[in-house]
Amino acid sequence: MRTDYHCHVLPEIDDGAKNTDISVQMLGILRSQGVERVIATPHFYAHKEKSVANFLDKRQQAYDKLMVCPNPCDELILGAEIAIEHGISELDGIERLAITGTDLILLELPYGPYDEWMSEEIYNISCEYHLKPVIAHIHRYINYYSRSEMENILKTDAIFQINNEVFGSIREKRMFRSMIKEGLSVVFGSDSHNLYRRRPNFDILAKKKISGIVENSDNIFDKYRRNSL
């Protein structure tokens, strides 16, 4: 099942879809691009939220608003894009932000200089809660981290999420190809927020000769379903 692992489609919760009309249109575009399963990943910033529980209430309200509308999506799964901050692994209820029904949790590195504490937080979440980290749009960090720092991140026991936009940059595309050559686990996401500059873009993948890699991405979701055989 073609899967978008990173999408800001829930209405009125973050800087993604501003209303349900936009949400429905985004899902319709994704469906026309062959996407059957969408993981909704609104931003979670611990320093801005009252609590994980409060965030989950807001997320559910946004989901409920969307689900009363005509919905072209075969399967809409709830998750979150969790910003890695100091102490995030110790936040009460952090494990509840895992992608629903799976042992996957989407984590976003800071846009700034790399520091070892970031890797420690990822490791702690993985070990403490037995979750598989998915590092969001890993290719973007080549603009912030040195080569050795990127190599350190890529050694993390994690899955690496790639935005479809990666094919628009020679440097990022080279990194993607290197990751595939090294056998790293990769999943794809649109990281779409709206209908314009950050619109659904799985049409990009359809033009690339990487069908096996995309199928591997789709299969990872089922591999990490809870109680899967």
Question: Would you kindly provide a written description of the structure presented here, covering whatever features stand out?
Answer:
- The radius of gyration is 17 Å and the shape is globular.
- It starts with a strand and ends in a 6-residue tail after the last helix.
- The strands form two sheets. The protein has a six-stranded parallel β-sheet with strand order 3-5-6-7-8-9. A three-stranded parallel β-sheet has the order 1-2-4.
- It has helices spanning 20-32, 52-67, 116-129, 147-154, 170-181, 203-206, 211-223, and strands spanning 3-7, 37-40, 43-44, 75-78, 81-83, 104-108, 132-135, 159-163, 186-189.
- The protein has one domain: TIM Barrel (Alpha-Beta Barrel), CATH 3.20.20.140.
- The longest helix is centred in the first third of the chain and has 16 residues, at 52-67.
- The chain is built from seven helices and nine strands; from the N terminus they run βαββαβββαβαβαβαα.
- It has 229 residues and is of the alpha/beta class.
- The model has no long low-confidence stretch (mean pLDDT 95).
- Strand 1, helix 1 (20-32) and strand 2 form a beta-alpha-beta unit.
